[in-house]
Amino acid sequence: MLPFHKVVENDFQAVNQLIIDQLHSNVDLVENIGHYLVEAGGKRLRPLLVLLTANALGYGRRRHLELAAVIEFIHTATLLHDDVVDISALRRGRPTANAKWGNAPSVLVGDFLYSRAFQMMVAIGNMDIMTILADTTNTISEGEVQQLVNAKDPTVTEDRYLSVIHKKTAALFEAACETAAVLVQADANNTDRALRAVLRRYGYHLGMAFQLIDDVLDYQGDAEALGKNVGDDLAEGKPTLPLIHAMQHADRAEAQLIAGAIREGAVEQLPAIVDIVKNSGGLAYTQARARREADRAIAELSQLPDNIHSRAMVDLAKFAISRLY
């Protein structure tokens, strides 16, 4: 368990139990796949953000546990659908659900998790939270479609890439932080939209930093530590920022090699492309951009109360850019 998890250890364990409890179904396959995903673990950063934010703002009730579980169900549903679209075979060091059970069960259990998340949202009973999460789920879906459109297209620009990772990744980080603030304010009968905006911006910058480093690790990470195959992005023809920058700064032949690998998903070219991406500054550029995003996230936290939970949120932003998995 990482240090920022330990700050909310009791809450975190309660959320894990709630997730297991809410996976109940009369259909065995739903529970089998659901429990398989839960047992795979993961960093659970999105529900962690709910717990840290609520506690940083002095929340004293228990509904943030339900909200954290909702966020995790939405995230897990997107992973199930992602793995089908990307034809992924490995996640968190284990076969993906689609590799183990097939595409159809994975898609349908993803739908079950989405619907269970919305059932739990209704039980929380806060219209602002439901609105934010409904909009966020729609945004994530748009991002998935845009990524599919961008696949195997070496002409994707940096702006198009950043738009996709905002929608696919940062949007749920934003929502986790903002909905936690909404929950706290509803309990205190207070509406501080400025504070909500601060936390939303923190989530945005944190999510962007996290995804940028993910894209770096796809070219210089360790498969065992990552729990997935290095080079997966290239195999799927995803034009991520390291490649986009490399194509702009490498020589013509090297840029053409990268463009061809993106079009073909040519993972056999990975060693050569890693060298080009490194030598052209693609990895360094992406890492520097991630550091700027993390710094901006930390700057937003100056407007929160100074306590063990807000300091853990600073640590989380630092972890996002220093991690190796």
TrEMBL record:
UniProt xrefs under PROSITE patterns: POLYPRENYL_SYNTHASE_1, POLYPRENYL_SYNTHASE_2
Family matches, as Pfam families: polyprenyl_synt (PF00348)
Keyword flag Electron transport: no
Family annotation (PANTHER family): ALL TRANS-POLYPRENYL-DIPHOSPHATE SYNTHASE PDSS1, GERANYLGERANYL PYROPHOSPHATE SYNTHASE
Catalysis: reaction(s): 5 isopentenyl diphosphate + (2E,6E)-farnesyl diphosphate = all-trans-octaprenyl diphosphate + 5 diphosphate
Enzyme Commission number(s) of this protein: 2.5.1.90
Assigned keywords, A-Z: Magnesium, Metal-binding, Transferase
Cross-referenced SUPFAM superfamilies: Terpenoid synthases
Family designation: Belongs to the FPP/GGPP synthase family.
Function: Supplies octaprenyl diphosphate, the precursor for the side chain of the isoprenoid quinones ubiquinone and menaquinone.
Cofactor requirement: Mg(2+)
Protein name per its UniProtKB record: Octaprenyl diphosphate synthase
Classification via InterPro entries: Isoprenoid_synthase_dom_sf, Polyprenyl_synt, Polyprenyl_synt_CS
GO biological process entries: isoprenoid biosynthetic process
Top-tier EC class: transferase
